[in-house]
Write a structure and sequence with these properties.
With 93 residues, the chain is an all-alpha fold. 74% of the residues lie in helices and 0% in strands. It has one domain. It has six helices and no strands. The relative contact order is 0.13.
Length: 93
């Protein structure tokens, strides 16, 4: 489990004051880059960003304090697992 990036969270909150919330959570890809460091051997950057785009709502909930960091990482982990299984199924199918 990677530590919760509280500095990034606060930066996103500040950005949300001056821009659209969804843009703020994606601004500079800081949060995405932080998480990607842990999974880059499992998925390429482009595919990871695609996966994360489906989690924008969860990212926002985490920033607002409506979702725990552990739950956010768990949902991303599940997405990675499903993607890996789907890729293997299509290869074997």
């Amino acid at each position: 489990m990677i530590p919760e990036p509280l500095e990034i969270k606060e930066e996103i909150k500040r950005m949300m004051e001056v821009m659209d919330e969804k843009l703020a959570v994606w601004y500079g890809n800081r949060l995405q880059s932080y998480i990607y460091k842990e999974v880059k051997g499992v998925i390429d950057w482009r595919s990871f960003l695609e996966l994360m785009s489906g989690r924008t709502g969860d990212l926002l909930r985490w920033v607002r304090g409506e979702m725990k960091w552990e739950d956010l990482l768990g949902s991303i982990s599940e997405d990675l697992k499903r993607r890996k299984e789907k890729g293997l199924d299509s290869f074997l199918g």
